[in-house]
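Hey, weird one. I pasted the Cytochrome P450 sequence into the form twice and got a warning about non-standard characters only the second time. First submission, copied straight from the form history:
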Amino acid sequence: MQILDSGIVPNVYFLAGTLILLIVLAVIYWVGVSSFRVLKGLNIPGPTPLPYIGNLRDIQRLGGIHVAPVRLMQEYGKVFAWSVGRTPAIVVGDPEILKHVMVKEFQNFRNRFLLFRDTRSEMLHGMFSATDDKWKRIRSTLTPTFTSGKLRQMNPKIRESCDTLMDKIGKVADTGESVDILGMFCQMTLEVILSTAFGIDSEVQKNPNNTFSDKAKEIFKSPTFLRMFLMLPFASVFFKIFRFLIHNNNMKYFIDLSKEILSKRHDKTFNRKDFVDLMLSAVNPDGSRKLSDPEIIAQSVTFLLAGHETSSNALSATAYYLALNPEVQERLRLEIRMAAETNSDKSPHELANDLEYLDCVVNEVLRLHPPVHTMNRECAQACVINGITIPAGMDVTIPFYSLHHDPDAWPEPDKFDPERFRGPAKESRHPFQFIPFGAGPRNCIGMRFALNEVKLVLFQILSKYKFVRSPDTQVPLVLIPGATLIPRDGIYLRIETA
């Protein structure tokens, strides 16, 4: 009997251990796939997500999060479902549905979809992260900054920085030297933002070792470990624990800089009508300020970073495509030269914004290389749009890059062709097929500022110089999808006097 008992006990332990192991494995699997269940009842096609990683493997295989939707739309249609890690989303590449999401039913999609909302972060007060009535109040307060009159007041400062850039270009033109044109434009646009928005005459362009530029580049990269967070079953908990890795010294640098700027303005010793002054002087009928100090700091950081990064990317990408398409560049230079010769009474700003072909060139660059490759909105209440059911709380992903490279809307989508933006080609295209700055009430508030700056700088440079492909020019350009599309190896060109 003792022998029998000694044989039974190990078997019981083995069976119990096996059962516990199977239960644990089942729970682990369930946690890894549970968030995908919301997609099953929607009848929306899409690639099958794997436990925890979702479709990250598909995204990587297809070339990155900016390119993948182009391929997936060809396989599953203009609306499909996927999961980035454990986060399910509906990707909308149908321009008519996007019109509903961004304009017609904006109240139901007016907030950005943010996986984590860090209540202790100063940036939670920023216009990008703000929600509902708070966002509306901040947006309406900042809108007067970007009127035509305000933009004209900024043009002298833009031209000052452009003159400095022209001096730098003059030193390298005709030398045969390959120039890091992205770096040059980054320094110039940073100098413009600091001057026009914050009243700081920084002379960034004369200081090649600039801390600001280096830290800004790091912020716009997407850390690999953030993707790993998306796979974890308790991602929000891990985010709170390891938040110091995300809100690192790079972001702290810009927050501290904005605090310093605001502190000087409170001293009343600085009088300059700019972005900070507008925020400080905006008051309610009862005399109270519309924006608190934390809100002003958050908007300042947002504008400092986004205002210089998007413009420098657009300028450097334009230089790149002009160098690779010399016939387009010569046609554009001819338009600029003729406008200057026949309208000597107009300012460069007026001329630049009146040039049709320049507008076509800039738009084609923004199509190929949009400021932001994707954007997300959160569905507040369940709804049905053109037969597509969108549950409450769902991430609705807007794939700007993929919209701009959809072969059904853009024949030969990878070809640089400014003629797409005038005549029948433009008139026959759905307006929401090209939305580089977003659309509707929550579009990019700095769009007019960015376009004004880009066109004025290009007008000045191309009046005298031309961009030329060099042996160091990367073809095709390799882009890294961080917060923006970043050229992995920079953009190197030659510059010649024309």
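That's the output from the first submission. The warning seems to come from a hidden character in my clipboard, not from the data itself. The chain has a mean pLDDT of 88.
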